[in-house]
């Protein structure tokens, strides 16, 4: 049935275009008086224009006007400092009352499948313009949104230019907390935000509550971020023609390194460590037990460097009254602070708008493409090629190079490698291409009825190349090579009708109904081999490798389909009382035969209290609006085929009948015909306010978000099941919180202005159900490293009645015979972590998140912007310290300076898990500061604007946390663990120029 529905778009498109009707209009002379809404005085010089033409008039000294137009056309009434009005010329007398303009309340926000004035919103929507975003050295467009929207946490694990940001809206919503919000770019859901250059973004609209996101049905449970890019446009009936050039260069350095022992400290420690052995063996020396490499190497200094970013953006726009465009191209190069990490991205984008059929038809075409090259280094674990682990633990007395000029490959212990050899000899690259094209048609069918049809196509291609020649590792190493290719192609059609009607200027109705069809296909292949015969050919010709085994070649292909029917009705009376409701009905190929379709309803209401008679005399109150909403949205992000019985190859086997080798197959997962969406039901209550001509404005939101039927790969016994995994709906989690947004124009005059905004958010998560894990919950957050063996190395427990990802550790009582002593579960004492009594000792979830942005303009031409961000009341598990403060491996391996203190106390144990490593991680960061100068160009006719600026990112951090970075990076169900294998954060300084011609 899902496939058959995919044929509807063509019928819909023809039906919409065919519904244009022509009529002969009658001439009518309209007269009236225009007055001020606040004091009733008449307004002189008000412009009255027939919409879409230059025909018009102005009011006289008594506020009167007269204009002859075709009956049924639209008249536009506009006056400086007042809100514009549009009225249908249906009668001969039309008196108009204009209200003083409040730009903030008239601001247009983008919602799902439509727009509305900010003053008309009923849901929780945050609107952030390009001028309000952070600038400077940005590795991802979403980075500019940090701290700008209450309840939106945007974090990144280190400063890797190839790494992405984690975005979480109103807390964790399931077992897979790494699922991102749905991104919608220029109306295309599912687009990749990195395919857009930051300079091309006009604004962000963040849909936070279920009543706002449920119009996207099964994809809206984690929030929706709508990105609107800059378009060409017209001014006074003519297309705006201009050229913009932006260029910036940034330098960056490691913000904080880990304090490890240096070579002299190692040399001083070695005689102490082996003093007893020397005493027991007269004539022996330290050199009999410890090899001094003879160098003084700072291995962190060797793998890190000064990074840089160079970005250039050129855009141009123009056209005619009926057709206009904007095109841009951006090239950016990032050189990471870790050697061997780089990224280059080129993005090109064009937006074209054309009007036809007497401006009844508007066509929009958007085309964007990006080409990205990445150079990677591994650092996420403790293997031979994990750069950070090898650099931190490698002995500082060992040199980088040996006496012959090659890389030093001293082998002190197992898994001991030279990180510079890995960086410089291993190839690990990616070549990616992204394409996004969409065509949209908006047709005014009859008065008040508009049809919209959009088709889009997204394609992502990426190729990976990995090559390690022989001899990179000090241990046995035959070399390895791999090539792979992955492709994703997504087709989308969406069509909807929108009907707006105003009755007696009192009853205002907006109804929308539509249909969506989406098909996404995946395919790829890979080939790998060992023992390369030439270090120069690399992985370019895998035929030159001597060893190829079963499983070294593979490929895949899959497809998913999503169908949606949706509708929304919005009604308001006198723009005072609002009521809206929406419904989406989604069908997905991902889910079980009994649950292919899901229903996602919403209802919302609001009340503009300031328009009530009892507040008529309160002149300082511009807005006081009460909102309430309820909605249900879904999450379907589980991959393809997880509701079905799937079979995969499991290797070679011998056929007992023929003696020949055959490929054996086994079940990968079991069938579950009842598998369905995760469901998020949310209640949101909000208050919007504005005072003193909107010099002070803001909103307050309170929400209760309940997510149930969580998607989870459940472990089941075999037999009776064919496979050990069945995807099921188990568990429920709650998120409750409060959000505050404040904005103030503190000073606003020609010589000096100051604008400030503040976001404050508090979210409390709690497990309600955990399915098969029951009341005991599940252990998470296992840390791994040298000496971490056994079941006791978990740091987190997710348990009913507790927050998501709470730390659950034993407490060290004392140290005895070199081993830590814990209280045991039985009531005594133990040295075994697996037997130790554990308690909840902290949470990585902040009590409060704060963002504070400030903008100054002074001496007419100078600007100063800065933004601070804070997380308050959270803890972080310092796994870096728990691994590297042990003196166990000294002096062969390096350690932190704390290891010397532990040695003095007699410690001989390896890394442990204990509450002592759970630290308060409250912080305040100066995220961004920029100083700019706008040149006075009144005498330069060909140049409109030039601005020079300097900026800094991640300027400083105030915290009591002893690790490298106190910030939380949200990922799955065990976040807040600070292990040594994290790319370091960077501090960047930027020099830039913006010019408009």
Class from secondary-structure proportions: mainly beta
* Percent of sequence in beta strands: over 45%
Helical residue percent?
A: under 10%
Please state the average pLDDT score: 90
Distance from N terminus to C terminus (CA atoms, Å) equals 54 Å
Based on CA atoms alone, the radius of gyration comes out at 32 Å
How many helices in DSSP terms?
Answer: 11
Q: Looking at the chains present, what oligomeric state does this protein adopt? A: single chain
Which residues form runs of ≥5 with pLDDT under 50? 1-25
The biggest beta sheet is recorded as: 22 strands, antiparallel, barrel
- Which outline best applies? globular
How many β-strands, per DSSP? 54
Summarize the structure in words:
Among the domains are: 75 residues, Carboxypeptidase-like, regulatory domain (Immunoglobulin-like, Sandwich); 131 residues, TonB-dependent receptor, plug domain (Ferric Hydroxamate Uptake Protein, Chain A, domain 1), CATH 2.170.130; 228 residues, no CATH class. The strands form twelve sheets. The chain has a 22-stranded antiparallel β-barrel. It has a five-stranded mixed sheet with strand order 10-15-16-13-14. A four-stranded antiparallel sheet has the order 3-2-5-6, with no helix packed on it. It has eleven helices and 54 strands. The N terminus is likely disordered. Strand 42 and strand 43 form a beta hairpin. With 997 residues, it is mainly beta.
């Amino acid at each position: 049935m899902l496939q058959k529905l995919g044929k509807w778009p063509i019928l819909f498109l023809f039906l919409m275009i065919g519904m244009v009707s022509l009529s002969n209009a009658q001439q009518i002379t309209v007269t009236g008086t225009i007055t001020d809404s606040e004091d009733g005085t008449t307004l002189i010089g008000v412009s009255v224009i027939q919409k879409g033409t230059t025909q018009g008039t102005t009011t006289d000294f008594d506020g009167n006007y007269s204009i002859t137009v075709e009956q049924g056309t639209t008249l536009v009434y506009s006056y400086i400092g007042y809100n514009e009005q549009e009225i249908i010329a249906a009668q001969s007398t039309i008196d108009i009352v204009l209200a003083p303009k409040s730009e903030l309340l008239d601001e247009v926000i983008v919602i799902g499948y439509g727009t509305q004035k900010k003053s008309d919103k009923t849901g929780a929507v945050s609107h952030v313009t390009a001028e309000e975003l952070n600038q400077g050295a940005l590795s991802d467009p979403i980075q500019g949104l940090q701290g700008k929207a209450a309840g939106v946490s945007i974090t990144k694990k280190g400063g890797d230019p190839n790494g992405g940001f984690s975005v979480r809206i109103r807390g964790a919503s399931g077992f897979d907390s790494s699922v991102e919000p749905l991104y919608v770019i220029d109306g295309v859901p599912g687009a990749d935000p990195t395919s857009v250059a930051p300079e091309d973004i006009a604004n962000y609209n963040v849909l936070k509550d279920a009543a706002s996101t449920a119009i996207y049905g099964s994809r809206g449970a984690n929030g929706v971020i709508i990105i609107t890019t800059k378009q060409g446009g017209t001014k006074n009936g003519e297309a705006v023609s201009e050229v913009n050039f932006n260029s910036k260069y940034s330098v960056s350095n490691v913000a904080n390194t880990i304090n490890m022992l240096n070579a002299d400290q190692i040399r001083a420690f070695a005689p102490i460590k082996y003093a007893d052995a020397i005493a027991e063996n007269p004539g022996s020396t330290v050199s009999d037990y410890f090899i001094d490499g003879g160098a003084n190497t700072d291995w962190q200094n060797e793998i890190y460097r000064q990074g840089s970013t160079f970005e250039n953006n050129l855009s141009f726009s123009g056209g005619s009254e009926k057709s206009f465009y904007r095109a841009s191209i951006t090239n950016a190069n990032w050189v990471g602070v870790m050697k061997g990490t780089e990224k280059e991205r080129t993005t090109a984008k064009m937006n074209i708008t054309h009007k036809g059929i007497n401006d009844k038809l508007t066509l929009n075409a958007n085309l964007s493409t990006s080409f990205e090259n990445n150079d990677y280094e591994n650092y996420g674990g403790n293997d031979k090629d994990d750069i950070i682990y090898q650099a931190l633990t490698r002995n500082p007395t060992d040199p980088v190079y040996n006496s012959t000029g090659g890389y030093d490959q001293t082998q002190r212990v197992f898994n001991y490698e030279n990180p510079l050899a890995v960086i410089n000899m291993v190839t690990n690259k990616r070549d990616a291409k992204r394409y996004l094209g969409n065509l949209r048609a908006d047709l005014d069918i009859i008065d008040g009825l508009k049809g919209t049809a959009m088709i889009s196509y997204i394609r992502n291609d990426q190729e990976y190349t990995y090559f390690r020649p022989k001899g990179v590792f000090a241990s046995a190493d035959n070399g390895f090579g791999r090539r792979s290719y992955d492709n994703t192609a997504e087709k989308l059609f969406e069509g909807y009708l929108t009907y707006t009607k105003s009755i007696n200027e009192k009853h205002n109705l907006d109804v929308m109904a539509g249909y969506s069809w989406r098909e996404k296909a995946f395919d790829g292949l890979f080939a790998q081999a060992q023992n390369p015969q030439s270090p120069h050919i690399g992985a370019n010709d895998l035929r030159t490798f001597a060893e190829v085994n079963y499983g070294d070649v593979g490929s895949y292909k899959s497809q998913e389909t999503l169908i949606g029917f949706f509708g929304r009705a919005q009604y308001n009376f006198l723009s005072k009382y609002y009521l809206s409701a929406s419904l989406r009905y989604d069908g997905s190929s991902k889910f079980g035969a009994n649950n292919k379709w899901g229903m996602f309803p919403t209802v919302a209401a609001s009340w503009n209290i300031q328009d009530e008679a009892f507040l008529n005399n309160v002149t300082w109150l511009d807005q006081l609006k009460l909102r309430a909403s309820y909605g249900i949205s879904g999450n379907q992000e589980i991959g393809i085929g997880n509701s079905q019985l799937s079979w995969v190859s499991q290797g070679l086997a011998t056929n007992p009948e023929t003696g020949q080798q055959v490929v054996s197959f086994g079940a990968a997962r079991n069938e579950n015909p009842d598998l369905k969406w995760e469901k998020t039901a949310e209640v949101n209550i909000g208050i919007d306010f504005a005072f003193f001509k909107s010099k002070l404005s803001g909103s307050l939101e309170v929400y209760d978000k309940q997510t149930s039927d969580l998607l989870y790969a459940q472990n089941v016994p075999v037999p009776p099941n064919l496979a050990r995994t069945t995807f099921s709906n188990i568990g429920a989690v709650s998120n409750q919180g409060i959000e505050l947004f404040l904005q103030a124009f503190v000073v606003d005059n020609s010589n000096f202005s100051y604008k400030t905004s503040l976001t404050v958010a508090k979210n409390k998560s709690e497990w309600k159900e955990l399915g098969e894990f029951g009341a005991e919950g599940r252990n998470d957050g296992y840390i791994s490293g040298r000496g971490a063996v056994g079941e006791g190395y978990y740091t987190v427990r997710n348990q009913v009645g507790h927050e998501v990802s709470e730390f659950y550790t034993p407490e060290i009582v004392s140290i005895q015979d070199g081993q830590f002593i814990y209280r045991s579960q039985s009531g005594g004492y133990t040295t075994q972590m697996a037997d130790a009594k554990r308690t909840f000792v902290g949470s990585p979830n902040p009590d409060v998140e704060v963002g504070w942005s400030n903008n100054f303009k002074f001496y007419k031409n100078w600007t100063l912007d800065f933004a601070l961000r804070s997380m308050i009341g959270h803890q972080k598990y310092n796994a870096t310290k728990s691994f590297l403060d042990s003196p166990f491996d000294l002096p062969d391996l390096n350690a932190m300076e704390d290891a010397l203190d532990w040695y003095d106390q007699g410690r001989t144990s390896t890394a442990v898990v204990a509450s002592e490593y759970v630290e308060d991680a409250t912080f305040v960061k100066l995220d961004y500061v920029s100083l700019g100068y706008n040149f006075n160009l009144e005498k330069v006719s060909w140049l409109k604007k030039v601005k020079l600026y300097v900026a800094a990112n991640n300027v400083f951090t105030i915290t009591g946390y002893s690790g490298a970075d106190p910030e939380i990076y949200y990922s799955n169900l065990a976040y807040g663990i600070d292990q040594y294998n994290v790319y370091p954060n960077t501090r960047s300084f930027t020099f830039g120029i913006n010019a408009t011609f």
